[in-house]
User: Fold this.
Amino acid sequence: MKTLFITSEKPPRLRLLWRLLGFVALVLFITVLLAIPYGIALANRWLPASFFLDNALSALAITGAVLLARRLLDRRSIASLGLDWRHGQPGRDLFTGIAIAGVLMALLFAGFRAARWLEVVGPGWGTDDPEAVLRAAALWGAVFVGVGFYEELLARGYLFQNLEAGLNTAWAVLLSSAVFGLLHIGNPNASPLATLGILGAGLLFALAYLRTRALWLPIGLHIGWNFFEGVVFGFPVSGLETARLVETRISGPELWTGGAFGPEAGLALLPALLAGGLWVWYYTRNHAPQSVLPDMASKAKQYVTK
Assistant:
């Protein structure tokens, strides 16, 4: 029974399947634990129903589950997920990821304009108070920082690294990116092509993790992708309408533009992902992956024992 449930590693821990099942159970447990007081507050009108509060609930549930599962089920340190500030260049990677994503969205915006698929209607505030729009933009920026952190902590952190340790790198990239795509299947205006587009973005973020063995570059890419896509250039963000600094009207073919879901559901995303992948590859050409971390140094031995 020991070989069925427990690895022969030092220290021993649950095998991959049981760790993943335990993680899902933790997510559900923490979600219910947080949802009960949140539901009571909504029912008594102590809090207004809000997308931002719902998002905060998801962030707390997923982050809490990852941190608990990493210590209790994985028997590994939190830093070994790729969150160690002592090695590499985390600040530079984070802001470079944001910049890369910003340029990719600028290229999509320029390409749509050149093809006459996109019309700039005017400033995002229209007849509203510009200060109110800027406050809303800052709020969405804060949301995207949180989303970039907890979704990468889940997809390229906990899921990817457990799948890589239990299976191999190729399966880890494919399966974690597929889960990332499926997590957005309930978004407004989602479609099979949109799910594939999100999966493709997941492949780009996975490349950023593999090239650095840290989460800072993919977190930066994720934050910048959402913020520049919606707030700066006025596209829908995976089906969501956000505060916009520029108001746009998209009239091009939905197969290419993604329509109401945003560029992730359009074929125009493919050259952007390719350009992003090449840029990430070039930027990380001199990176030293964080294999110096104690947990990462024993990776080869872990593969053998599994």
Strands lie at 118-123, 246-250. The chain has a mean pLDDT of 89. Residues 19 and 73 are 6 Å apart (CA to CA).
